[in-house]
Amino acid sequence: xTRPVEITIVGAGMTxxxxxxxxxxxxxxxxxxxxxxxxxxxxxxxxxxxxxxxxAPMSVELLDGxxxxxxxxxxxxxxxxxxxxxxxSASPDGPSTVCFDADEFAVPELGFIVENSLVQYALYESLLxxxxxxxxxxxxxxxxxxxxxxxxxxxxGLVETELLVGADGGRSAVRRxxxxxxxxxxxxxxxxxxxxxxxxxHERTARQRFLPSGPLGMLPLGDGRISVVWSTAPEEAxxxxxxxxxxxxxxxxxxxxxxxxxxxxxxxxxxxxLRAAHASRYVEAGLALIGDAAxxxxxxxxxxVNLGFADAALLASVLGAALDAGEYPPDRPVLRRxxxxxxxxxxxxxxxxxxxxxxxxxxxxxxxxLRKTGMMLFNRSxxxxxKAVAIALGMSRR
Length: 398
Ligand SMILES: Cc1cc2nc3c(=O)[nH]c(=O)nc-3n(C[C@H](O)[C@H](O)[C@H](O)COP(=O)(O)OP(=O)(O)OC[C@H]3O[C@@H](n4cnc5c(N)ncnc54)[C@H](O)[C@@H]3O)c2cc1C
Hints:
There is one protein chain. The chain is of the alpha+beta class. It is built from eleven helices and 21 strands. It has a domain at about 5-45 and about 115-185 and about 275-360: FAD/NAD(P)-binding domain (3-Layer(bba) Sandwich). It is about 35% helix and about 30% strand. Helix 1 runs parallel beside helix 8 and helix 8 (about 305-325) runs antiparallel to helix 9 (about 330-360).
């Protein structure tokens, strides 16, 4: 092909911008990114943002590859070197606590905790000198087929595009307008998210305590605080929004079994309903879904954006390889290569997370004992541990 293939990415979130950054290095693509939200901004003099993500080393590598990582690590990111996961019926120091240490796997860290807004901003910043056309405050209003491509309106007149990528999150307007179903299961849990000051140092350790009502995740932040993701009954999470700081601190200290001593609350709080959702298909001619637009998973293993990044990387490589082979990238058989590689991997992760959440929520003493024995056996099994770490580090995408 002599002229560039026109691609529009709807959604300038973390996954949409990573895809734009990956494709922008290939002049055979002409890129436009539209987003309903205003221009991304980031101010490192403000307190840490509420929304943070645990980024696996593979995601860090992708961000580095497009030149966005220096803009993140040079501002604020917190490495975590250890992980501790335990059942509420056991002690955090007991033999059934699943422990991972970076040293054991010969890596400098297991991952980084980074504000979502910083990941988004650094990606946007890395694209400022590119030829990508951005349109912010431009919600998708209309989408229809146009020949072998698509025609859409987003904050202006009708625009034609050869390939439209839906990276517009869990409530994807692209997915709905294209008539793609999504199988959804509510977890009957909402996540309360807030940052807390622990009495004892977090020692760069990510912790998770599984309670019958849902997991309590504690991620170490660079300023010494921890970011808590407390998945619990929707009414309990909602009620926690209006508790006093003292009462919330007491409740979360109890829920954490005082593993870091008393936790002091203060600052922003948010509640997020949790669900598993999977699009029945990721592609059709001239259209592809990536990230949360294609799949939403439980945050218990901090995998959501890491899966979205793996989608973006694979789609970019499939599109580039198609051009190398003289094929037309928006063709369905080309896009199916992306879908085949990613849908099964994402489904596997989604099922594993749903299963884990159910297993730990089962309140029977028999299942509780089984869980503890299983965790002890897991601790002693080299191959199982290696496989789990490979997945957590993003080294294995299956
Ligand atoms: C409590 C919680 C904790 C989490 N922790 C982790 C973690 O530790 N690690 C991890 O990997 N993942 C985590 N996740 C998941 C992660 O946040 C998501 O997977 C990730 O944000 C998805 O990114 P995305 O770019 O696909 O979608 P989004 O972040 O939802 O971005 C979508 C973009 O599309 C735009 N948009 C939406 N609708 C339209 C429209 N109609 N027109 C134009 N633009 C539109 C939006 O403005 C936005 O910019 C967590 C999730 C939750 C709820």
